[in-house]
Amino acid sequence: MDYRLIYLYLLIISAFVSISVFEIFVVIGVIWAIYQIFKEKRLEGVLRYPVLVFSGVSVLSTVLFAPKMISKAVEEGVFQFLYFFKTGLKRESISRLLFFMVFIGILLFPVELYKFFKTGEFVPVWGSTFETGQFYGMFSLMALFFGFYFYYVGRKKLSFFMFFLTVFYFVILVLTHRRSPLLGYMIVGYLSFLVLYLNGYMKKILFWGANLILTVSLIGGYIYLSKTDVRFKILNGILLGEKEFNFQNLNRISNARIGIGIDAVNIIKNDIKEGNWINLLIGHGVRSGYYLPHQYSPKSWMKYESIFVISEFIEKGIIGLLAILTIFFIAFKRFVTTKIKDSFDIVALGLFVPLLIHLIGSVFTFFWDALLPLYLLLFKIGEVYFGKNR
């Protein structure tokens, strides 16, 4: 019996059922991973150094400057050690795991539909429409990869079913009105077509056709949001000259991120002025907004949720920010340069998707997410698979 595989399934199920239970499984996985590290006396993974630096800076800056948030620092920093957990998954296990995740989208839909009729929003068992957007964005691209795989192995009915799920899940993503997951889906979708094309699994006409379909779908989504979302209505009004280009309108479009960003920049300016070099290097600590000034943003907000470069600089300083930027660079480079040797490798690309969509979505928020440990672990499984099968 493979206890690591059982653990992985329980971790994934808990991620969509209860964040509290999920965090219990993360703690178990982190302890397990640390045991593996000490046993083998080595760290593995292309993201090992930036993950270590990010985790270390998160905890250190919080201990020094925001000790009330030490539990949150452990959650946002140490929990990412799950990346080092060794699963030892083989091809068959990876196939079942990803198929299971695609199937979760079907199981979640009745809950989403029930909550839509009850609250008017598509929300999952826990979380908000943001989680729904992230979930169904990654389910959609995973289903897309399965669709291509089944097509190449001659299982046309399964292929068409997966393509149907791709579209269906994308529609749910659009209906959430969440811009960050939608942006992540768009960029990772285009890059996915590029990877398939560069590896000879998409002919030129299919490559451009797929890009056209994705572009038309996104335009359709934008038109829908322009009619239903006040933020898009204001943006269109500015673009058409019907509304003023001013602070109030920009702040509404950005969900108050302009004001938050101004507060964050003022804090950084003050640190430079007063020579707070330790804060500039490692930040003010996780969720340090509880004690830092707020002039244009709500005082109850503990994170300066603006462009992630600013948000992360406040909490983790230049060192933590560089670690995050390194994760961005390595993760996308690893994905784009993937070499596909056989049709099953297309399915395995789905392991990279959750982290990549999250990274793009975090550009206008912040790097941390409650499910980030899972996204990092799935990415690690993907890099190990492609590393062993080259």
UniProtKB/TrEMBL annotation:
It comes from the Bacteria. The chain crosses the membrane at residues 6-34, 46-66, 94-114, 135-152, 158-175, 182-199, 205-225, 313-332, 344-368. Coiled coil: none annotated. Keywords: Membrane, Transmembrane, Transmembrane helix. This is O-Antigen ligase. It comes from Persephonella hydrogeniphila. The lineage of its organism: Bacteria, Pseudomonadati, Aquificota, Aquificia, Aquificales.
